Amino acid sequence: MSFFSKVLDFFTLRNALVYYGKDLDYQKASRNDYIIIQPDYIDTNESNFLKYRDKMYAYISVCEISPYIKEYKKIDKDWILSENENWGSLVLDITNKEYQEFLFKEMIEPRLSLGFKNFFFDTLDSYQLVCKSDTQREKYKIALIEFITLFHQTYPTAKLIINRGFEIIESIYNYVEAILFESYYFGLGSQKKPYEKVTDVDKMWLDIQIKKIQSYSLPIISLEYLEESDMDKAVEAIKMIRSKGMIPYVSNRELNIYGIH
Does some domain include residue 257? Predict the structure, then answer.
């Protein structure tokens, strides 16, 4: 068995939990190697938090912001690029240095001061919703690389998981603990049709990205979405995802249940 195959086999033995609900069940969470949570719902004074925080990753939305979080009222209107109608969130301008400073001072540093050590960066590719040219896309890619590089330089011991980031992985793979992406089999659609299967064409494109990520020997978490009543459909998909050397996790759209892997 090659070294590369051994690495993939090792990753398939790992588990991940992505849970954005309240009242984290530490007994269930502790069975996972990666525990991605909403930091505002965690009591950092609890003894179990201190026990398992090395495996916990605090959620940060990098290029979007929800109107339901307390930091929303501090957003400058000059940072707003568009709206993501599927989630009711604002798309923000990561190329703006003042917004980057906001992310450090208002989103990251307060979580560190509470005791969180590691982070999960979401919505990295939201710029795709507004860019109309390759020149524009390159501008946002450079800004993301600069932001993640600065994060690593500022907090060198903090571990980082990112959502996708396929377009910039060549520049930041040394700063990343793992890659998460949505979805290989079961994905999300519109508000009218919240769940939908991933097309074969999209799978082919993802296969190319997966091989690229695996060439850097990074763990990959494939986050799949199903209605709670349809979880039986996930069994075969989980087997297939593990056979590709990835870590599967299946949950609902809101990520407020304990899914399966």
Answer: no
